[in-house]
Amino acid sequence: MSRTTSRTTEGAPASWEVFLRPRRGLAHQHVGSVRAGDPDTALSYARDLYTRRGEPLSLWVVRSDAVHAASPDEHDPFFAHARHKPYRYPEQFAPLTGDGDAEGSDDDA
């Protein structure tokens, strides 16, 4: 008989990453971790631990082993600029003057 086990150590609760969104207009931010056996318990622990000072707009818990991230060693190849797409960089556009026209524009109507 084969029994499927979780990716954590047998009997140990899973680690969950906690993300909180304090109010509208702001992004979720990682605030810490909790250990729990299931998502509902993790959410309950996260609420008790991380929402004591105010009422956030939302709270997320994600199993730690489900989070994938680029390491600092991968920074250069992973986040390299796409120089073949110059429209993504502000230096490719003419600066604006105080009246909203591009400098050097001879387009007077």
Automatic annotation (TrEMBL):
In the record, what lineage is assigned to the organism producing the protein?
Bacteria, Bacillati, Actinomycetota, Actinomycetes, Kitasatosporales
A single Pfam family, by name?
Answer: PaaB
| Protein known as | Ring-1,2-phenylacetyl-CoA epoxidase subunit PaaB
What Gene3D superfamilies does this protein map onto?
Answer: Phenylacetic acid degradation B
What organism is the protein native to?
Answer: Streptomyces pseudogriseolus (Streptomyces gancidicus)
Q: Which InterPro entries match?
A: PaaB, PaaB_sf
